Amino acid sequence: MYLLIKGGFFMIPILVCSIISLGLIIERFIAYRKARTKFPDFLKEIEPVVKDGVISEAIAICKRTRGIIPKIYRIGLENETKEMKEIMRIVEDEKRTNIVPGLEKYLPTIYSIYVGAPLLGLLGTVTGMVRCFQSIQMKSVTNQTLSPGDLAGGIWEALITTVAGLVVAIPVMFLYEYFQARVDKFCIEIDRATSVLYGMLFMRKEYVLRAGQKDGMDT
Length: 219
Known about the structure:
Elements: H1 2-7, H2 11-35, H3 39-51, H4 55-64, H5 68-78, H6 84-103, H7 107-141, H8 148-218
Helix pairs in contact: 2-7, 2-8, 3-4, 3-8, 4-5, 5-6, 5-8, 6-8, 7-8
């Protein structure tokens, strides 16, 4: 509290930035944890059901499985009666408009805090230095004795905001880069899982088409 008071006005927005960044970072950790899916286990469960043509059961598996990949699979399976081009368009639209933006949510705000907190600290230091030298000038004008302690005290109080800004920005910077890497990894996993989904649906359609042709020949 002492440093907060000594740092002056700009310590308030820096403190606000630290609180906001902490909340957003916790939210992102929780969101990414919920977005994860053990894809091999999920695929092992859903693939034979799709091959058997029990689409309703496959959709039910998607609904009860945690993560973003089951959501994408559910979108594809709910539209499995449509043409493959239409299914792919619907799934890709879902990825582009909902899934990926959901993964990137709040990252621009975290980035802004990581860039802005040091600038707020620097601005606080500059204004503090201005006040310090104004005080020195006033003492000179009034012929008051100026001690090295007066000068040092004013400067260290001015530098508090720079230190505070860096303390906030440095961990936020590393966590922002970590979150970006997580998003990139999710996108790669989504693309791979989507390709598997398209393959399953294509094979299912081929099977249904061949079965229909065979029934037509038998009749």
